Amino acid sequence: MNSDQIIKKFEKLFKKKPLLIRSPGRINLIGEHTDYNDGFVFPAAINKEIHFAVAENNVDMFRFYALDLQESFELKIEDLARTETSWANYLLGVAAQFKKAGYELTGIDCVFGGDIPLGAGLSSSAAIENGFAFALKEFLNAPVTKIQMIKMAQKAEHEYAGVMCGIMDQFASMTGKKDHAIKLDCRSLDYEYANIDLKDYGILLCNTNVKHELASSAYNTRRQECETGVKILQKYDKKITALRDVSLQLLEQHHDEFDPTVYKRCEFVVKENWRVEEAFSALAKNDIKALGALMFKSHEGLRDDYDVSCKELDLLFDMAKKSEDVVGARMMGGGFGGCTINIVKKEKMSSFSEEIIKEYSKFTGMEPEIYTVNITDGTGLI
Ligand code: GLA
After folding, report:
1. In terms of CATH, what superfamily is 201-373?
2. 367-381 pLDDT, tens per residue?
3. Is residue 378 in contact with ligand 1, taking CB distance under 6 Å?
């Protein structure tokens, strides 16, 4: 991503020099819908980013410009609240968290834009929240840690965007490290970096270019279903506070007490948590095939048991699974659209991409988008 246009627009609008910040999107190798169950995830920050040009103003206002939408937004600091402008809410939501934490807000001018496709499961919203949290930390001279900013960004999403997301996206975007994935324990927030060297393989993302309406309501329903499962098992062990604490054996023992749908949801989460541990070990042994096999299983669970896939994602998955050049693939993020992540032989990336474009267009009448990505550092100054 190149910031030139963002800087130019900022200087034109605000007639001063800005501070520059970059904030990346993320992929997730494995560990889907486990974060809000206090479980494990294995994401990484990628070179699809949002860039910010930011400076203080002395008019006590938030003055924002979204370059990609070519839209501006203004609000007096004293009127800070959720607004009708959904993109501005990501920034305002973060400012509200700083205010809640006791910081006195200052007027901020901000132009931002980037190349993270929207609604593609690559966490453009977390990137925006993190980038603005970083900007506020700088201008308010706030001694906040990365973990505090991550939590503020997540709260912004809950309170100003209305999605009860887990912590994975904000965490990955903020703590990303070049060429490393992050194995995160979403309960303790302890994390370990794993070097990602896939040898003869590379990471290819295929974007369905669809985002079904269902996405955010179904997300919140899945959370409730998991909580229902926890309540049933808590009767037998008070120490259970999340599905993270549940073994497959315990779940199976109480099978008959569950509504079948709730059972499938819980079984998926318990197995997916286990797959993250397995994937981490596979990668440490350079066993890319084992990693890939776990990714295939993850998709099948998300499709059949967690019910968050859709026909477009399944089509991309089926093509990947059939291909000799793909060692692992699955849908990524909340579901109901967005991208699949594929581990593809480097020398076959372009032929596989061509195949996908041809077949996907034939069956859906839509063009998919294909991205090769590199793993980068998290949110920071440019
Ligand atoms: C979305 C949420 C994350 C996580 C994933 C599913 O990306 O923002 O917190 O729950 O879905 O793994």
Report:
1. GHMP kinase, C-terminal domain (3.30.70.890)
2. 999 999 999 999 999
3. no
Q: Could you tell me if the CB of 32 is within 6 A of ligand 1?
A: yes
**In which band, very low, low, confident or very high, does the pLDDT at 212 lie, cut at 50, 70 and 90?**
confident
Task: Average the pLDDT over 109-130 and give the result.
Answer: 95
Please report the atom of ligand 1 found closest to the CA of residue 334. Answer: 11
Residues of the chain with CATH 3.30.230.10: 4-197
For CATH 3.30.70.890, list the domain ranges present in the chain: 201-373
> Looking at the annotation, which residues are catalytic?
169
List Cβ neighbours of 188 (8 Å cut-off, separation of 6 or more).
none
| pTM to 2 decimal places | 0.96
Q: Is 81 helix (H, G, I), strand (E, B) or coil?
A: coil
> Would you tell me how many other CB atoms lie within 10 Å of the CB of residue 249?
8
- Give residue-wise pLDDT tens across range 134-146: 999 999 999 999 9
User: Would you say the CB of residue 33 lies under 6 angstroms from ligand 1?
Assistant: yes
Distance CA 330, CA 205 (A): 10
305 lines ligand 1 (CB under 6 A): no
Ligand 1 atom nearest the C-alpha of 32 is 12
What is the pLDDT averaged over residues 162-181?
96
Q: Using one digit for the tens of pLDDT, what is the confidence trace for 27-56?
A: 999 999 999 999 999 999 999 999 999 999
Listed in sequence order, the residues at least 6 apart from 198 whose beta carbon sits closer than 8 Å to its beta carbon are: 288, 343
- Find residue 191's DSSP bridge partners: 184
Ligand 1 geometric centre to CA of 116 (Å): 16
Look up residue 277 and give its amino acid.
E
The answer to whether domain 4-197 has CATH 3.30.230.10 is yes
